[in-house]
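WARN retry 2 of 3 for item q-0093 after timeout on previous attempt; input resubmitted unchanged.
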Amino acid sequence: MVALKRRWASYWPGADVDAMGRDVAVRAEAAAKAWGLRGPTPLTGGHVALVLATDDVVLKVHPRGHADDEHLVAERAALASWAPTGVVPRLVGWRDGGFTLLMERLVPGTPLDASEVTWEERLEVVGALIRRLHDSSPPPTSIPHIGGAYARAWRRVLGDSSLLEPAGDDVLLHADLHGGNVLRHGSAWRVIDPHAVRGDRHADVWALIDPLAPAAPNERTAWSWVERYADAANLDAGRAAEWTSLRARGEALNGADGDAAWEARLRRTADLLSA
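OK item q-0093 returned
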């Protein structure tokens, strides 16, 4: 919990992280009791929610009482909407208005990032999963739009953009899909931890700017990666490149979570795709 509270403090300055921590702990205990979970243990990798697991299920307890409540609680609606695609964990139950979730556990749960595939192959896997998510039913109206609070940091540094306005062909976006959020389940890949917003399908390009993404050595390579990903995801490469540049520049100008190397790669990516 100490590490979680430290991250909460960096994400939401001014939030009462001690109160949030107590609330999460109480809800986790209540949920485990209500659902009859015996000895759930912490899973590594969670950066925002408290994540506990048994052999069969995962208990995910989101913090609440901060600026992004509406985004964290949207995960429940997103998982329910994507259930027919078969590429997300099965949602077993929820409590606390959706801030507490119970899901099937993915086994063996090996991340795509840890598998022996090339960077280009990784882009194809993530792109194919994004395509399946986008082809699901229309996005629930309860899920916030990407141009709202989700983009507040971008608007501060980039100003208004028509890309951030709602449109009739908006889809339900994962918005944070990269190799760490793609896990092996049996012989197939599954998707976890959506940021769940509505918006232009071409905004789902996080795999291209993720902190673990390599630095493109030149413009040709940067475009080849966008094109490979866009082809797998059924996106227009030009629009995908525009969104990649926008999201990369926005993250860089907002500080890139204090990661200087990532910030440099983000700026380089944005420059190469805007040349």
